[in-house]
Amino acid sequence: MIYDSIKNIENYVEIPNDVSEFIKNISAEIPCGKHIINDVDYANVEEYMPKDFSDCRFESHKKYIDIQMVLSGMENLDFTNVNKLVENSVYENDVVYYTEPSFAVNRLILQEGNFVLLFPGEAHKPQIRLSNSSQMVKKVVVKILV
Fold this sequence. Notes:
6% of the residues lie in helices and 45% in strands. The chain has 146 residues and is mainly beta.
């Protein structure tokens, strides 16, 4: 997992140049929906209210790297290695879900200007509301084919 400023996006060789360009030029005015970047990589843009902790689930992917960026608002994102988790769903559409762990996991605040890059094998639990905040979030999730 990598957590950094969008200003440093070009420092990561894992990110194709056209994906870096897309990320550097994106703004909160981008419409919601799917945006094709190239033949294999794309981005999903959505707006939502962050959820209570208990309404969010750990997930991971096998075919795609996620780059998650908040364009407006803020949310918590928990993460841990999948080796410590128990699957509770069938793998389909490049996602598997996990049972809530009984151990402490890592947490970061995803906010405008930063991104998190999540590799296959890194479970993440996005869209967690910050305390009692009820601020709308606009977020882009870029999918990079491994």
